[in-house]
Write a structure and sequence with these properties.
The protein has 20 helices and no strands. With 444 residues, the protein is mainly α. Helix 8 (158-176) packs antiparallel against helix 9 (179-195) and helix 14 (293-311) runs antiparallel to helix 15. The chain is elongated and about 110 Å long.
Length: 444
């Protein structure tokens, strides 16, 4: 006879009016919830909720055994499980005030206070994810901090509270961008990693998460040590995520980004080579319809373009152009990132035309350059760059096929780019030299 059957028999021996009926109801509901967690049958959870409601009616006030607070806690927990299973917001809305009442019945020093704090913080975080009410997130963070204080290092439930607090701080950082949250996140990620040493099933996830937050902190503070450590941690995580691992792609993606960033910072070609290798591996793991495929095609093309600039390998430039054409198909008119792929493709096409005189490259570069400029209206941070490249393409076309209109337009575009740029900026000096060249070409 299983646990639920035994407890059901016990309830049958406690009819309405029996002194022990509330305990029998509570225990059967507990058994049904445990079976739900194993077998995931919703009828077990529904019955557990009904039984917990009946139990609460028999426990109107708290007693020395804490019966009412335990029933409130169990009912809230069951409602939360049902919310996670079915997504019915009413269940979560009902669970939260019940957990608040349970917390009020577990004052400082009560053995169940840490669990009430933790669960309430968890429920509020879930409601924040659904409704994006900042007050829920702020309250969840306060409650989880209090729970963590009651779960010092060595406490069996410390990892779960640490994890929930990390998730809350991560959400707040994403929405508000406060560096203090990121600093605290890194500290808690390190603490979490200590709880999950090598060999633990969560070690790989913990390595990956810490590496991601270190990379984010580097983006804020430009501390190269954060980027170095992030790369080391991602390499370690990748070893734990071999071919076929469901999370291999995410680590390849992050590692590619970190290596590319370090190349931009320090100029080590080995980083760029590795970024391209991992970028190709990540791209192979993405199906044609994956929403991030366009971004990955674009990023891999950018790294290949960087290597071409460094090493002048024709194959890199050719592959970059093919990838950017594919990226543009996934970034149609109206896509927020279309302009960036247009910009890169114009750059690559104009370079291939300069180096190898590929027929049609310059015409395509001019056409795409015009579209890119339209996507960057006055005030856009990239407008000056787009104007400059279009002007260059028009001047190149003038050199091949002298048409006054092309040169006149190039001069107008470069002048506008100069008006946007600040004197002393390297880009300003480049545009000024180009404009001087164009004017001299016109005079001649």
């Amino acid at each position: 006879m299983d646990e639920v059957s035994r407890k059901r028999e016990r309830l049958e021996r406690c009819p309405p009016g029996h002194a022990g009926r509330d305990v029998a109801l509570y225990n059967l509901a507990l058994g049904l919830r445990r079976r739900f967690l194993k077998e995931h049958k919703i009828h077990d959870l529904n019955e557990a909720i009904t039984l917990n409601r009946d139990t609460l009616e028999l426990r109107p006030i708290e007693n020395e055994k804490g019966h009412r607070s335990k029933s409130l806690h169990e009912l809230a927990l069951c409602l939360c499980h049902r919310y996670c299973k079915l997504g019915t917001v009413d269940d979560l809305e009902e669970a939260i005030p019940m957990q608040w009442e349970a917390l009020a019945l577990c004052p400082s020093g009560h053995p169940g206070r840490d669990m009430c704090l933790h669960n309430l913080g968890y429920y509020l975080r879930m409601r924040f994810e659904k409704q994006a009410e900042t007050s829920d997130l702020e309250e969840a963070i306060q409650l989880l901090r209090a729970a963590l204080e009651l779960r010092p290092p060595g406490h069996q439930n410390r990892p779960s509270s640490l994890r929930q607090l990390i998730l809350c701080l991560s959400s707040r950082y994403k929405s508000q961008g406060e560096v203090n949250d990121l600093e605290e996140l890194v500290t808690f990620r390190r603490a979490e990693l200590e709880l999950y040493p090598r060999g633990h099933p969560d070690h790989g996830v913990s390595l990956h998460d810490l590496a991601c937050d270190l990379r984010r902190r580097f983006e804020k503070t430009a501390a190269i040590t954060d980027l170095q450590e992030s790369i080391e941690l991602h390499h370690a995580a990748l070893e734990l995520r071999p071919l076929g691992h469901r999370n291999r792609y995410s680590t390849l993606d992050e590692l590619t980004l970190c290596l590319s960033t370090r190349y931009d910072k320090l100029g080590m070609v080995a980083d760029l080579d590795e970024a391209i290798e991992f970028g190709r591996a990540a791209l192979k793991l993405l199906r044609q319809w994956h929403p991030s495929r366009g971004e990955h095609l674009h990023n891999l093309a950018c790294n290949l373009r960087k290597r071409f600039v460094k090493q002048a390998a024709t194959q890199d430039l050719k592959e970059a152009i093919e990838l950017l054409h594919a990226a543009l198909k996934l970034r149609p008119i109206g896509h927020p990132d279309r302009s960036s792929s247009l910009y890169e493709l114009v750059f690559c096409l104009s370079h291939r035309c300069d180096e190898y005189r590929v027929v049609g490259d310059l015409e395509e570069a001019v056409t795409l350059g015009r579209e890119a400029v339209k996507l960057c209206p006055p005030g856009h941070p990239n407008r000056a760059s787009f104007l400059h490249y279009l002007a260059q393409c028009l001047a190149d076309r003038f050199r091949q096929q002298p048409t006054a209109a092309d040169l006149d337009e190039a001069i107008v575009l470069e002048q506008e780019a100069l008006d946007i740029l600040v004197c002393g900026d390297p880009s300003y000096d480049i545009s000024l030299r180009c404009l001087t060249d164009y004017v001299q070409m016109k005079i001649k």
